[in-house]
Amino acid sequence: MAEQHRKDMVLSYHRVRTALGVLGMTLPCVLIIGGLTDYHRIEPSISDFYHTTYRDIFVGTLCAIGVFLICYRGYGRSQDEYINDDWLGTVAGVSAFGVALFPNESPTAQIATMTQNLVGIGISPIFHYASAVMFFSCLAVFCLAKFARSAKPRRRRIYLACGWTIVLALFGIAGASAIKILGSGPVQAFVVDYGLVFWFEAVGIWAFGLSWLVKGQADITLIRLAARTPVVDDEDTVHSRR
Question: CA-to-CA distance for 242 and 236, rounded, in angstroms?
């Protein structure tokens, strides 16, 4: 492969990773600022912003993340891996669409969307939460099993920290959501009033965004190192697309 062609491919992956990182980092921030500005509060969860005037931001950002993840190919599966980057990204991307298009519990009993009408207003949240679990799980796998696999020590620590943060956030989301939906009394009020589900989701998404921004920076490092030497033996050459 010609050197310029290889650099163009690396820059293409850099843009995809950077776009995913920026979207992940900005979504919670936009919703926080918008919620405090327009409603003087933050919704109990990021998903609850679907039922506000920020629905377009919520759905649009998740759909954009889904498209980028589905289009992300990365490397094929090696002999000691169970899944390749392409399949993992596709599952994560489809899950992002599921989170965006199947609303969680509606504040009213009326059917308001096409997907609610398709599966039923009571069934839509099941698709929503199943998609959310799959989405965060795939993001954690990217960090823990893909990005950290061949990274330099400093980046490896960042990827592992982001991955385990996503795992912990997922457990926090599941527990807080169960209390929010099924609980009652002071415990439920505490979860809702302090937006615990929202903050667990925000932390998980921020960790996702940071990991992809760091991975995108590895692409730029590759180009700089390749300009100085024809042989580089770290993650930025062997696994620059992953």
Answer: 9
- Count other C-beta atoms under 10 Å from residue 19's C-beta: 17
Q: Rounded to whole angstroms, what are the CA distances from 162 to 17, 104, 119, 140, 168?
A: 15, 26, 35, 8, 10
pTM of the entire predicted model: 0.83
CA-to-CA separations, 57 to 54, 105, 138, 189, in angstroms, rounded: 5, 18, 22, 27
Closest CA to 147 of 1, 8, 13: 13
Mean pLDDT of 122-139: 94
In whole angstroms, how large is the CA radius of gyration of the chain?
19
Angle (CA) 138-120-134 rounded to 5° is 5
Q: The tokens of 15 are what?
A: 């843009």
CA neighbor of 126 nearest in space, from 94, 99, 166, 164: 99
How far is the C-alpha of 241 from the C-alpha of 54, rounded, in Å? 34
State what percent of residues in the chain have pLDDT above 90. Answer: 56
- Residue 147, CB half-sphere, CA atoms under 13 Å: how many? 31
For residue 241, give the nearest of 140, 146, 152, 137 by alpha carbon: 146
Q: Kindly give, in sequence order, each residue whose CB lies less than 8 Å from that of residue 32, ignoring residues fewer than 6 positions away.
A: 42, 202
For the record, the structure tokens of 6 come out as 């290889």
Please give the sequence-ordered ranges of beta strands (E in DSSP) within the chain, or none if there are none: none
Collect all residues with Cβ–Cβ distance below 8 Å to 242 and sequence separation of at least 6.
74, 75, 85, 146, 147, 149, 150, 215, 235
Query: Over the chain, what is the mean pLDDT?
Result: 84
Pair 48, 202: CB distance under 8 Å: no
